[in-house]
């Protein structure tokens, strides 16, 4: 079990290091950095490389933002096989809808419970 935690830490850390280097060295904005990492996850999934990374690193590959791109591309490709072009559009939202919905609901509850500083 210890090697699993080690590789999750290493892979997740490397993804975070790449993002930090985009901030520090390339002087990219947070929006640009997040977009690039999401697209990178989608491209890796399109080539069939992200799922082996998830199998190897577990949470180290599923927690960073690259996993969101992986989910979008994976859902789109899966639904495109069954429903064609319409499946590309609906597949992205079907796979990621629960996570997005949870973020909206918990964000709303947090806004109700806590007073923002300002």
UniProtKB/TrEMBL annotation:
InterPro entries: Spore_V_AE (IPR014204), SpoVA (IPR005562). It holds the Pfam family SpoVAC_SpoVAEB. The keyword Manganese does not apply. Keywords: Membrane, Transmembrane, Transmembrane helix. The chain crosses the membrane at residues 6-26, 33-50, 95-114. The keyword Acetylation does not apply. NCBIfam families: spore_V_AE (TIGR02839). This is Stage V sporulation protein AE. The gene is spoVAE.
